[in-house]
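Quick check before the chapter quiz. The format below is the same one you will see on the exam, so make sure you can read both the input and the output lines.
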Amino acid sequence: MSRRTHLYDFHARNGHMVEFAGFDMPLWYEGIVPECKAVRNSAGIFDTSHMGRVLISGKDSTSYLNYVATNDVAALEVGRGHLSVMCNEKGGIIDDFVISRLADKEYLVVPNAGNREKDLSWLRKRAEKFSVEICDVSDEVSMFAVQGPNAQKILQEISNEDLSLIPRFGGRNVDLDGVKATVTRTGYTGEDGFEVFTWDSPLEQPSRAIAVWNAILDHGKSFNIQPCGLGARDVLRLEAGMCLYGNDISESITPLQARLGFVVKLTKNEFIGRDSLAKEKAKGAKKVRVGLKMLEAGIPRAECDILKDSQVVGKVTSGTFSPTINQGIAMGYVPREHSKVGENVEIKVRAKNLQAVITSFPFYDTSKYGWQRTT
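Here is the expected output.
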């Protein structure tokens, strides 16, 4: 039987439901394209409570996280967070997640939905030599994402704190419409926005979570906020060049191959996978993740062949039609010698080899869209 989030009743009434990572979740409400456009042009709200929430605390919490994660947790100030990955001893990615430092000796880790149990088991097995407490609070804390250029304006109407003071990857404890919450300036769409964690919201008593969700929708009406499903979430993250675990990253892919080297700090003390990643960096990754834009009409999908001079050189790992740039887009892995931006390749779509070009991430014009927008 599939699991449910705090907002299941809302989704079942208003959305088109599917099973994802063991949860009943909305694929779309009004539609994937209008939901994508709402986020890029104004705001959208996503239920992300299917993801994990793990609190890690104790006197060794910093050194422990620095051992299991590739990024430098010790560099985080209280109220700040960053993207990181956990790797196995060979450097393969067990999961990617955001780590937020809530207090001097307390951190919040947010695993991907499909990896909740796997990550928790991995974390606990490697905690034996550390004085830490690992607490899975996934079913006690709801999680929403409010994304888009008007996200701050909407949340500010129900917040008791000045949200403009929260930097990117920063966080703060606030009251949202009278409910205790933590908001972090993070997300999975490429846009400015926040992830909202409502505390003391067990699945059996979801009233606080429902109250915050409804308050956001109510105050967002004047901004045409839209509830958004998994379909829009997937398109938006791909437009932004963000990886989906199980498609674009896995235990057979290293962060250097995935072009996530910025979250690997080889200068810090020992961490799991460090030796393998140091050797790979010295030699150079043999294959790397690239962006692909279609030059012909066609929608690439996962497992489509990538060809160079009629020879298969790689596979698409994620692909879709981008409503933002009105073009087919994809990401995949190719040998490093074929990864130069501007290089022409072909993608086999429905038995036809269609022209495409290697491009950088994100796929859209960052002066018009995304958190760096200037217009």
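If your answer matched, good. DSSP finds eight helices and 19 strands in the chain.
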